[in-house]
Amino acid sequence: MNHSATSKDEPTIVSELNKGSKQAFDCLFDIYHAKLFLYCFRFVKSKDLADEIVQETFIKIWNSREGIDPGLSFGSFLFKIAFNGILDFHRKVARDAAMQQEMVYRIEQSHNHTEDEIIYKDLQRLSDEAIQLMPDQQRLVFKLSRERGLSHEEIATQLGISSNTVKVHIFKSLKHIRSYLQQNADFSFVLIITFLSQKR
Q1: Residue 37: alpha-carbon gap to chain centroid
Q2: Domain named RNA polymerase sigma-70 region: which ranges (predicted)?
Q3: pLDDT number for residue 110
Q4: Could you tell me the pTM of the whole model?
Q5: What is the band of 48 on the pLDDT scale with cuts at 50, 70, 90?
Q6: Cβ atoms of 155 and 141 closer than 8 Å
Q7: Third-level CATH fold of 7-95
Q8: Considering only CA atoms, which of 42, 12, 32 is closest in space to residue 79?
Q9: Cβ–Cβ contacts within 10 Å for residue 106, how many?
């Protein structure tokens, strides 16, 4: 088997991978590595992080090689694993203020590209629409948190509600916006970066 193989004989390559063929693994790596790297980079805006996710994805492919179905799309399976890696990364971003700031910077730097700018603005518009659809108090809490940067305690004091109520409102707000974007964005995967990393 050589590395000039294409998706036309991909099931054969995957069958060989099932048997533990390192050559089959290398062949699939050569076919998909560049595409997968660009896919990951689009979402994490860092060559090092994209490369790390790609490497982890292929490690998972190798470790699960015996259970991969040659009759199904290997590419879809591969990109799903990578997407889960991207999700894990953005969950970390959502919990870390310093990482959020870094992601905002990366996104801003990427906006020299017309396509990214259009996508970003469209998602910005959709997130604004989602915010306007929130109940009044929920929207107010969310804006005080994201736009004015107030802490939960400060918001609670200003509005005369408990800190726990503030937390619930913010949780529901984030859930609502993600849901709205998933339903309305043409390129919904981008919302993971755009929304989780922005300081709205």
Answers
A1: 14
A2: 28-95
A3: 54
A4: 0.51
A5: confident
A6: yes
A7: Rna Polymerase Sigma Factor; Chain: A (1.10.1740)
A8: 32
A9: 15
